[in-house]
């Protein structure tokens, strides 16, 4: 479900974007609010610089110190040292709506492909599943890969060598895969 989030609540933002609506899902909005509440360590209804930076990172935005300071000044011009929930939600809605989904999937692929081989192997899937606290059998992993290895380049009977490539991964993530 998509939801428009109006930027009119932002204290200071350039005029062309200030009145813009950004389409983000209600799930994203709930995730943004949850991140704010989780990282508002002192429960004062504001995120200071450090809380703000960590909350943004938790939402997938690894911003540098200078950008973090600039965002605080843009969204909270009175003090420039903290951000409230409303402005945080506006900012994050904008940043999420500006994401390039394919680039996000490519980044995710690189997390799986930690050796930089250009393929996700059964070993990589098993490693990531374990890091996420999931226990998958070799058969479950093999089935996952075989289901989406459309060009057959990794559908080997040898468990260790089964794999799928970046384009297959993006197809899976976007739902645009061809079987």
From TrEMBL:
GO cellular component assignments: myosin II complex
Domain EF-hand span(s) in chain numbering: 27-62, 100-135
CDD domains associated with the record: EFh
Keywords: Calcium, Repeat
GO molecular function list: calcium ion binding
Keyword Transcription regulation belongs to the record: no
Keyword Repeat: yes
Stored InterPro entries: CALM/Myosin/TropC-like, EF-hand-dom_pair, EF_Hand_1_Ca_BS, EF_hand_dom
PANTHER family, A to Z: EF-HAND SUPERFAMILY PROTEIN, MYOSIN LIGHT CHAIN 1, 3
Protein name: Centrin-3
Organism: Smittium culicis
């Amino acid at each position: 479900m998509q939801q428009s989030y109006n930027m009119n609540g932002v204290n200071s933002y350039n005029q062309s974007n200030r009145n813009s609506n950004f389409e983000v899902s209600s799930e994203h909005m709930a995730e943004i609010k949850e991140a704010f509440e989780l990282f508002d360590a002192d429960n004062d209804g504001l995120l200071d610089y450090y809380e703000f930076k960590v909350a943004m990172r938790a939402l997938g935005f690894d911003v540098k110190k200078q950008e973090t300071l600039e965002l605080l000044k843009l969204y909270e011009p009175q003090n420039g040292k903290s951000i409230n929930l409303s402005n945080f939600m506006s900012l994050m809605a904008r940043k999420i709506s500006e994401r390039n989904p394919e680039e996000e999937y490519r980044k995710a692929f690189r997390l799986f492909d930690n050796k930089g081989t250009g393929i996700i192997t059964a070993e990589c899937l098993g490693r990531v599943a374990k890091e996420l606290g999931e226990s998958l059998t070799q058969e479950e992993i093999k089935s996952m890969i075989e289901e989406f290895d459309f060009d057959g380049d990794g559908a080997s009977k040898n468990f260790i060598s089964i794999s799928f490539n970046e384009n297959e991964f993006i197809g899976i993530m976007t739902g645009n895969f061809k079987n």
